[in-house]
Amino acid sequence: MELLKEPVAWLSVIFAGALTAWLKGFLGKFLPPPQRAELAITNSFKTKPLRPEDRFRFVLCWLENDTSGGYTKTVEQSFRGIKGVDLVRSARIVKASGAADKWRPAMRKGARRVLDKWNADLAVVGSVNEFGKALSLWLVPREGDGTLPRADQPYELLEAGTLPTEFIEDVLAQLVSEALRAVAPLANTEVRDQVLKKELIDATKKLETRLEGNQPQRHAALSLAHGNALQTLGERESGPEHLEQGVAAYTEALKEYTRERAPLQWAMTQNNLGTALQTLGERESGPERLEQAVAAYTEALKEYTRERAPLQWAATQNNLGKALRTLGERESGPERLKQAVAAHTEALKEYTRERAPLQWAATQNNLGNALQTLGERESGPERPEQAVAAHTEALKEYTRERAPLQWAMTQNNLGTALQTLGERESGPDRLEQAVAAYTEALKEYTRERAPLQWAMTQNNLGKALRTLGKRESGPERLEQAVAVHTEALKERTRERAPLQWAATQNNLGNALRTLGERESGPERLEQAVAAYTEALKECTRERAPLQWAMTQNNLGNALRTLGERESDPERLEQAVAAYTEALWVFTPGEAPRYRETTLNNRARAFKLLRERGAEPGPDETPD
Questions:
Q1: What is the value of pTM for the model shown?
Q2: Fewer CB within 10 Å of terminal CB in the chain, N or C?
Q3: CA 27, CA 527: separation in Å to the nearest integer?
């Protein structure tokens, strides 16, 4: 009885129904408690096959007791019994990729996340039996410390046999899917594709074949699970196919998960639908998908209220902020960006560092991004300073050891905010700090591991180097900027990421133009004009009006500099035309700072034309 007081051993005896087997393993009493528990449950596997209820008990037990591998074999056996899912094979694939020491913690983290994520959905069962109610309550972290209440409550109900076997199998399948989502990023691209395509998609499709003749709510739950799997795969691919399928799966789930019938499940599905639409919208030129994502998040918040579901409310506010920021980046006005700042600020009221440290860090990072983008359109330093503070906060939890890719992402974003400040200050300190931050990010954002993120950071590094180079007499920084942007274009191709390709072409043009202004020959300036012209092939007024106007202004600057060195006024006339194009977007009410700069640039071109006796035409200024 003294041994039975050991918490892990006691829980294991109850969960696996293995009292006899555990007593047979009594000779292992000198082992530490987790190993004794493993011995008990392993013996149970030898004596009888586990029912779905037994497997579910063990998975919950395993999630509660963070041991270092003592339960691994038994957990694999628990998962292995799920029809249509072979987690062990997936784990072996990932282990073969060199991540053997990471897949188990990742699987545990992913499985725990699915329990949190599905707490509202599990409450559906609560409408027909007591287990669902108890399990839903058990899954909600206690206020303040984030720990779980009353670990024994759902197991008591399991013993009473009130949980449908089909429901258990579905939840276990969802646990496996989420675990694989956590494991997949640890593998290289080839292995990751094997895991995602063969295990995630195939497994959920097999589950769908079991829908015929089953109750509608199971159909909705599995459609939601399938949508989550498709969305995860689509986020890692350049094409829209799996994301489109994910949208269709969520839409199917909403046929049964109506607001009147299942309000929390309806809100969850609306939120996930918004995420899929947002990912699609970020890859498309038009605003339609992003507008639909904002609408889906707004719908979700009608039931995901702060009072009823505080953490889900915060998550949806954070997602809404990201969609609004992406829309705001494509518009000349600041309204969307201000709304994004407000949404992230709201989310932080529940996503506190103490209660949800990683979610708090993610939201701080997103808040910093919105503040940074808004600050780029204002003349004062307040917004960029706030962005630096937000990213610095995020790095307190997003450490390189704990979350290497998120750490790299935040370092990159911190560099961008520092760069904006540095461009407005006379000293080089902020810009040097920005270069240091980008360089840190590249330690984890490698071309092999994260090619597009690597290219993004290279592009940002090039911008900072160019700004530093403008303030130095030597060409070294500028040459480095040209080289860095050229590197970025190896992954930021027109086919793969058209708008990002255009942005990098524009930045390459800026570096080349600055070099060309210091050289007597026209080669660099001609290359700059070519780069800007390339950028305008994808960065159109319809797709990205603000970026299009900036590129037109930059093109005008390069053409004006060439025109200053030539007797033919053609280049200057082309420069005036480019500036005038930009002014159609740089309006007094929405982009006053950019408008003033472009008006001054055009006035210089007009003056040069008049000095040469050319007739520049009417000085028309678009409103």
A1: 0.65
A2: N
A3: 79
